[in-house]
Fold:
Amino acid sequence: MAVSAAADRPILDPARARPFPEAALPVLRDPQLRKNVAHAIDVIQGKRARLVAEKADWQALRASASRIKDVALQNLGAYLEEFEARCTAAGGVVHWAADASEARRIILDVLRAEKATEVIKIKTMTSAEIELNPFLEAAGIRAHETDLAEIILQLGEGEPSHIVVPALHVNRSQVREIFARRMGIEDLPDDPEALTAAARRVLRAKFLSVPTAISGANFLIAETGSVVVVESEGNGRMCLTLPRTLITLAGIEKVLPRFRDLEVMLQVLARSATGERMNPYTSLWTGVTAGDGPERFHVVLLDNGRSGILARERERQTLRCIRCAACMNACPVYRQTGGHAYGSVYPGPIGAILTPQLQGLRHAQSLPYASSLCGACYEVCPVKINIPEVLIDLRAQVTDQERQRARRFFDPLYLGLRVAHLVFARAWLFHAAQCLGRVGLRPFTRKDGWIHALPGVGAKWTETRDLRGLPQQTFHAWWAERAKGAK
Amino acid sequence: MNGGASSREQILERIQRATPGAAASAAALAEDYGALPRAYVRAGRLDADACVELMVHRLREYDAEVVECAAEELPGTIAAQLAASGRRSFVAPPGVPAEWLAAGFDWRIDHGLTAAEIEAAEGVVTAAFCGVADSGTIVLHHSASEGRRVLTLLPDWHLCILRASQVVETLPEYFGRAAGNQGSGDEKAGTRDLGTEGLGNCGHETGRLPRLVTWISGPSATADIEMTRIKGVHGPRFLHVIVVKDRKLGTQGPATQGLSVQ
Ligand code: SF4
Structure:
């Protein structure tokens, strides 16, 4: 049981991560990990399916949710400016960060001005995207994660493998081992209740003493300048109300036009994410409120590649994502590989389209291929992102990119495709190739009509699947014969 | 803001170039928005009785303790709940009626209590803004009777007083009520039936949408370890609700639709 993940800690930086097929191998060989992942996914999937089925207006909710996001994205500039004006009027400070490094610097500047040496955090994938924790650590500021799953990962020096249940790959005895070792508790039983209680005790002190907090945002409301955070444990409410200063990091695509749009979003989010009618706690706040919550509030609006996605007509739908994780729970590929193979903080089908785009297709080019294109992700997505459509489009872009490179000219695959192009475009060549193929493949075709093993490049196919032998007569030949016979 | 202004212009300019189809004016934008499809269920189908019944059922599914009582029984019911909890020290927001503060317990009223003082209390008693039956959600707008956000967070035991007339069936109906507090003067009478009526001031600043909202659906929970649902991670571990029958129930005939109890 490889608990000490530190040794071979997965790399979630797309610029350094290995290609998906390689990164997936260790997981495929780790039955414990696959069991943990499959168990967690089965539980969420079952709950989700039951709660979606009871909702007679589910498709209408999906239609509204996706259109609300479309209108918000179509008019993103206007809505962001409206949000900024309202939030500022309510006492908040709005910052704009063009990329990850600017966001990190803005956050550090605020923390320095607060003379902060530590900060409490609510789980935010966006902060993982900009690799905030190691940056703060290097600057001498200790970041304490407060979400149970994030604590497990932080103490166990692991990496998130899911966007809603980030530690789903870790089981209870592994959690027990991590907590016992890092919290110095010796006789800790391994039932989830006792483990949760241990985390509660350790964190209470932090909540009451650390005066600065960092959060993400599930939604920003343009109409009111409010921010919404959806959570289960209450660590979010702690971070949002107890500290003196709160910093919220939010992608620019998080904005919704109106307060009322939440009546759609909150209904689809909880059902899709955790299979609940509503998650235990949802908080909305607007700037600062005298006597209630933080005295100082900063929002950092992060672009980091998002405006580039916005500009592409077919890919724009990627930005509708509300990070519910339903697509990865439904994905047959994710089920086998877990999240780390995706080499990004965003795994699964949404990661396969989001990560390469956020990277401007400079990295993570293998991800659009990490899919069987079965469409299960599209079917469950509450904002109707047609992930297979975007995957295919990205594959085309990756192929175009590769074609530009000179060495591709001699690549066997590309060479083969060029030959195929030549052959398929000419009937006489095609017929000749068929004759040749029949003769050439005959030695490999077994009695049952199948080819089980081929030499050379052909082995790439037969290693994993059989190939039907070529029939003795082609359709063309049969047709011609039949016409003759009719006369 | 350390060069933030230039990044702001840069981002907004990129967005502008990326969205040639953006509405040209505020009026055009309002029209785009107004054309959004909203075919989902926006009004409940249950009558008032069934709606409250569903709310109670959902709360119990979340392991919340629920008791129902008539308006005149409320002070006695509160006292009984407090006694049954085996706790002694409670906090309450300043806007709750004096008769809620049962004798025989230690009360601290939140006129700016410190976090440590609130943390030291064994329980908290508050009103609510609204209840959403469909998901068993209690909505707080943090008015004077609902308390500051921290008040319903630190104590381990929360007793929430919900009036039957505050319960709606669907989430969209809650949003209707919240928007009803926009005092533009043109809202229909009836969306404003959230008056005080001696049961605590549940109205909040009129004239705008709520500034602070907390939606609570059952006690704090996590399923982070092997998807086993554990109650009470950081918020209150115990949620108790008293539903006050403050309107004449059972006058609208039998429920038109049974509860979908699973
Ligand atoms: S792509 Fe859709 S299903 Fe996947 S996380 Fe985003 S919103 Fe959820």
Observations:
- Confidence is low (pLDDT under 50) at residues 1-7 of chain A.
- The radius of gyration of chain A is 26 Å.
